[in-house]
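Progress against Task 2.4 (sequence-to-structure conversion) is shown through the following example record, which the project officer requested during the mid-term review.
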Amino acid sequence: MNPHNLFVAIVLIIIFHQLFEYFLDLLNLSYRKKPIPQELSDVYDQKAYSKQQHYELELTRFSFVSSAFNFVVLLSVLFLDGFAILDDWIRTLVEHEVLISLLFLGSVALISALFRYRLVCTAPLLSKRNTALIKPM
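Structure tokens generated for the chain above:
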């Protein structure tokens, strides 16, 4: 398999995964609109159920934004040869293959954690701004 075909296969897998995740989230959102089943109506309070549904809606909306951002960043890094640049830079620092692999994976994990931390820190800001636009159920 030549490198171009492998690259296209990886990009297609990433795109398919993202679309499948969006489909599952939308499917979950459609089931959240259903009322409490009769068997649970005496166990689960309607007000608590509405509050939980509202929270899940906000969480799913934030998940859409977060996953779209991660998707764009990942495709950008792939198409702009970000992984190759990181690999070349690490190879200038270390010559041992095991250390190169460990530093590469550690760097990717650190960068990913920093992006995730940034999104987690902005989540309350996005949530507070959006809750004013959404009427409680």
